[in-house]
Amino acid sequence: MSDIREALGSLAAARAALDAGSLSAADLVEAALTRAQDHAALQAVVGVRPRHARDEARASDERRAKGERRSLVDGIPMLLKDNMVVAGEATTCGSRILEGFVSPYSAGVVERLQSAGAIVLGRTNMDEFAMGSSTESSCFGAARNPWDPSRTCGGSSGGSAAAVAAGIVPAALGSDTGGSIRQPAGFCGVTGFKPTYGRVSRWGLVAYASSLDQIGPFTRSAADAAALLSVIAGHDPRDSTSLPVPVPDYAAALTGDVSGLTIGMPRECFVEEGVEPGVLESVREGVRELEAAGAKVVEVSLPHSRYAIATYYLIATAEASSNLARFDGVRYGHRAEGATDIDDLYRRSRSEGFGAEVKRRILLGTYVLSAGYYDAYYKRAQQARTLLRRDFDEAFAKCDVLVTPTSPELAFPLGEKNDDPVRMYLSDIYTVTANLVGVPGLSVPCSPAAGMPVGLQLLGRSLEESTLLRVADAFQRRTDHHEKRPPEPV
After folding, report:
1. Is the whole model's pTM more than 0.90, yes or no?
2. Which of 53, 103, 250, 348 could tie 85 with a disulfide, CB 3.0–4.6 Å?
3. Which one is catalytic: 175, 180, 201, 447?
4. 66 catalytic residue (yes or no)
5. pLDDT digits (tens, 9 = 90+) for 105-145
6. Is 134 a catalytic residue?
7. Which candidate in 60, 81, 407, 417 is catalytic?
8. What distance in Å separates the CA atoms of residue 395 and residue 433, rounded to the nearest whole number?
9. Does the active-site annotation cover 379?
10. Separation of alpha carbons 430 and 55, rounded Å
11. Rounded CA gap, 189 and 485, in Å?
12. What is the CATH number of the domain that holds 98?
C-alpha cells in the first residue's frame, strides 16, 4: 500500500515503479480509482472512466512487456479539468447548461497525452466555466482543500489541485485564465504551471476568455512539471493562437544551479497592506533560499500592476460574453421547457443553465462592449494591458525571473467570500498580470503559515519556461515543502 501511495504521489515515483516492475499501469489505475473514492468527500473528481482507463492501462503494460515505452508518462493515470473535451464523453464545465453534452472530438492536449501513453482517469471539479477563485460555483458543489476540508482549494482549477495534493493521481491538467492553475496550486501545496500563451494548444478547451486562457500541469514537483509539459507543449495548426516554435528539452534545464541568474522582486507585490500575515515572510524566506543558492536578487517595479485586476475583469468578461453566446439551448446542452418563441427559449435556457457568477460576468462583459461604453471601458482596458506589457519588458531588462506571492492570503473558509465578489476577485491580484501579458508563471510551495500551504510565484519571459523550471527545481532541491502531504481521510 505504501508503494502505491508513493507512486501516486509523483510522476517520477510512478515511472520508477513501472520501470522496476514493482507496479503495473493496471495497479496504478486501480489504486487511483480507489483513492478517488476514498477522497470523495473532497469533491475533487466529478467523473471517472474506469473501463477506458483499464483498457489503456492494459495496453501500456503490454507495450512495456515488449520492451516498448512511448514516453516518460506512459502508463501513468492523470485527471483533466472538466473543460477539456474527450471524444464520446461528457464535458460540463461545472455548469447545468452543458447537461447531456457529449463531445464528438478530443482536445489537442488529450490527443497528446493518449498518444504518449498516459491514462486519462477522469474529470476534475471546477468553477462554472472557469469563472471563480474557489471552485464553489460548480454545479457539482464545492471542492475542498485536502489540508483542511472546511477551506477552499482555490479555483477555478481547484479539483485538479486537490486531486494531486491528495495523491489521487500524480498529475492533472488545469486551465489558467487569471491564475486558475497557480492560485489553487498555492492553496493546496503543489506545483502549478501556466505556460506562455500559445505554448500549449487550446483546441478542445472550452473557451472562457480566448486571449487569456492557457492549459498547464499540476504536479508534485518542477521536475514532474517539466516531464508533463514536454508532452503537451507544441504547435497545433487547429489553434490559430498556437505558437509555431520548437519545444525545448525542459529536463535539460533542471541543473540545480541558479548562479548567474537575477531574480527581481516587484516592490508593488511586497506591500503589507491587504496581505495575510505570514504570506510575505514565507515568500521572502523562499527568496533568501534562492539567493543562498547563488541567484542575485534585485528590486524592480511594475507600476501599472495596480490596474491589473480592473483591466483583467473588463477584458475577460468581454471575451466571456462573446464566447458564451453559443450556449443558447438550441444546439447542445440544457434546453428549457415550455418556451413560447425563440427569444423566450434563449432567455429561459440561459437563465436556468448558468449560475450567478457566470451571469454576472456575462452581463458585465456585454455592458463594457455595448455602444457608448466600449471606448470608456474595453478600449481603455486594452490600453492598460499594453502599459503592463511595457512594465514587464522593462523589468525583464533587469532580471531573468520575477518572484511574488502567488496569492495575498491562505486558503480561506468555504463560503467566506460568496457574498462579496470583489473580495473574491482580489484573490488573483498577483496572478492576472501573467495572463494579460502572456508570460509563463509557476507556483511552488514555500514555507507554510498557520498550518496551511503558501505559494511562491515565479514569472518569466515569453517562451522561457525552461528558466522558470530551472529556478523552481533548484529551490525544491534545497527545500522539502513540495514533498509534504495532507493527512489521509479518516
Report:
1. yes
2. 103
3. 180
4. no
5. 999 999 999 999 999 999 999 999 999 999 999 999 999 99
6. no
7. 81
8. 13
9. no
10. 42
11. 8
12. 3.90.1300.10
